[in-house]
């Protein structure tokens, strides 16, 4: 982000301080708020983009130093001007996301901007074209404001962002703590009101964890609902991009913009969860936004996922309150719902052999990328030290078709789907509910707070086999969603996780909306207050 661009953004914000009477605060504004202001002529897209850029200037690398942005779109104001000119000419908004600033995780291709995947060896790499989901955002009228920091190659989870290029991001609710990964830059930037909505990716939980840690709504869609083309891989079976927003309504509108079949993505043709997409392909998610959506819903409490031995007692106590809130909103709670096989099934791995093949396909579609193989990346020694061993393991692996761990993992994932389907059918369960994370966010930059065993951590923080509760939806390749359900410890947000069956994305979005409207837990973080007058 150039100093000249920062100064221009700041100067432009000052020019907005005019005697005009305005009533909209950009902080916590929604898509509907902006569209109402655009439609009445009260605001222009340029004014809105400028206001967000000013917040980034004030808080990303200064002040609380949230460190959420790797690159900004230098054409953002010019693109805003084009939208404003189109509206003046036609009197109509250009699309469902007209003038909505979006931040995108920097493992997703956006034409004209670097795509680094957090790796310093790619800091100057410009991809050949937009990823399909980015093209859909632009076609809907959105402005790609910039690219967010992330754990290198999306190799991250509940801790801080591990990237030599980006460094770790900070939680805006308490900057001593982690954002969650690997979409942590997207999570903390949307929480801090640096843009209206964001796009992350989720393989093992990388949308849901930062959503929970940053008081956001975040969706891991059914694999195949959103194109993965133009996204760096982590596991071709589990990878998916997903929206992150401050409200369920904005998340649903964003999902409507980016969902759709992709003939170049095998998940559209042969979904890894084995269930073909409904016909017509799901495209309407805002229709599920009903305050009474939870009425009569049978929700299974999956206590097998957050046993007391590995779960912070505060998380458990808060979840008991959440169950009462779901009941009050009309849900029928099945507590405790059990999957008999779950306690004996192993965790299905994301294998090096699978990732090597996934990356080979990605490299074939990205001519000119530096270090154009996993072996070259490993040999460069430019990756974060925490990821070096994994990259070397991927480089040394053989064909995934004959890899024993990959074959065993496929069988395990099939067994998961069979076991969950059988148990949910038997008890007529509509969706599962449980926390997103078994511990509170960890302290930034200190991996010694994370004891990587199955035993509870006496200091709190991550345990390797216990803290992540996002593995369920990832293993199933089913949709999983996080919605704010409280604040614990040092003012740190936590999230309710709702997991549905394949292609039940609209259903769980409806449940999340009803819960959100009944509780309204989302509040802006204290470290990034409003700048200047309202727009």
Write a structural description.
There is one protein chain. This protein has 535 residues and is α/β, with parallel strands linked by helices. It folds into two domains: 3-337 and 427-519, Amidase signature (AS) domain (Amidase signature (AS) enzymes); 352-402, no CATH class. Helices cover 34% and strands 11% of the residues. It is built from 16 helices and eleven strands. It has helices at residues 3-15, 31-39, 45-59, 76-90, 132-139, 184-191, 208-213, 248-258, 266-269, 313-328, 352-364, 374-380, 385-396, 404-426, 471-476, 505-519; strands at residues 69-72, 101-105, 143-148, 197-201, 217-220, 241-245, 298-301, 332-334, 431-435, 480-488, 492-499. Strand 2, helix 5 (132-139) and strand 3 (143-148) form a beta-alpha-beta unit. Helix 3 runs antiparallel to helix 4 (76-90). The longest helix has 23 residues, at 404-426. It is globular, with a radius of gyration of 22 Å. The relative contact order is 0.14. Keywords: Signal.
Task: Give me some keywords for this one.
alpha/beta; signal; 11 strands; Amidase_dom; globular; 34% helix; 535 residues; 16 helices; AS_sf; disordered N terminus
């Amino acid at each position: 982000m150039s100093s000249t661009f920062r100064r221009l953004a700041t100067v432009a914000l000052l020019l907005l301080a005019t005697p005009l009477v305005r009533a909209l605060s950009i902080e916590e504004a929604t898509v509907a708020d902006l569209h109402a202001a655009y439609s009445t002529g009260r605001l222009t897209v340029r004014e809105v983009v400028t206001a967000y850029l000013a917040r980034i200037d004030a808080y990303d690398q200064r002040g609380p130093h949230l460190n959420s942005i790797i690159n900004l779109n230098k054409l953002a104001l010019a693109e805003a001007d084009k939208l404003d000119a189109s509206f003046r000419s036609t009197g109509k908004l250009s699309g469902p996301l007209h003038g909505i600033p979006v931040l995108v995780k920097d493992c997703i291709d956006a034409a004209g901007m670097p795509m680094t995947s957090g790796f310093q060896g790619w800091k100057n790499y410009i991809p050949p074209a937009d990823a399909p989901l980015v093209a859909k955002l632009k076609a809907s009228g959105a402005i790609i404001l910039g690219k967010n920091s992330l754990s290198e190659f999306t190799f991250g989870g509940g801790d801080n962002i591990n990237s030599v290029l980006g460094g770790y991001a900070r939680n805006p609710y308490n900057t001593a703590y982690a954002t969650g990964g690997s979409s942590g830059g997207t999570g903390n930037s949307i929480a801090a009101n640096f843009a209206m909505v964001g796009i992350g990716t989720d393989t093992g939980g990388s949308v849901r964890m930062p959503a929970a840690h940053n008081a956001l709504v975040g969706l891991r869609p059914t694999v195949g609902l959103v194109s993965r083309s133009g996204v760096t891989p982590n596991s071709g079976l589990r990878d998916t991009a997903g929206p992150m927003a401050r409200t369920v309504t904005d998340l649903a509108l964003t999902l409507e913009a980016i969902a759709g079949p992709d003939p170049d993505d095998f998940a559209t043709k042969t979904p890894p969860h084995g269930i073909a997409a409904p016909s017509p392909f799901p495209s309407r998610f805002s229709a599920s936004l009903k305050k009474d959506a939870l009425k009569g819903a049978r929700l299974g409490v999956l206590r097998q996922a957050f046993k007391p031995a590995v779960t912070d007692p505060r998380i458990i106590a808060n979840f008991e309150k959440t169950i009462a809130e779901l009941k009050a909103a009309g849900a029928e709670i099945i507590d405790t719902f059990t999957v008999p096989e779950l306690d004996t099934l192993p965790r299905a791995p994301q294998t090096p052999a699978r990732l090597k093949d996934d990356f080979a396909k990605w490299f074939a579609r990205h001519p000119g990328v530096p270090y154009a193989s996993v072996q070259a990346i490993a040999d460069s020694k430019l990756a974060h030290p925490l990821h070096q061993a994994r990259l070397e393991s991927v480089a040394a692996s053989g064909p995934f078709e004959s890899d024993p761990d990959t074959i065993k993992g496929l069988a395990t994932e099939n067994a998961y789907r069979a076991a969950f389907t059988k148990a949910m059918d038997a008890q007529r369960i509509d969706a599962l509910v449980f926390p997103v994370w078994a511990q509170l966010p960890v302290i930034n930059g200190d991996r010694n707070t994370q004891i990587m065993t199955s035993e509870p951590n006496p200091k709190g923080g991550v345990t390797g086999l216990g803290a992540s509760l996002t593995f369920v939806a990832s293993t199933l390749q089913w949709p999983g969603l996080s919605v704010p359900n409280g604040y614990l410890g040092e003012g740190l947000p936590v999230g309710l996780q709702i997991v549905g069956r394949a292609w039940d994305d609209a259903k769980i979005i409806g449940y999340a909306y009803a819960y959100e409207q009944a509780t309204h837990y989302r509040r802006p973080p204290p470290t990034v207050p409003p700048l200047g007058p309202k727009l």
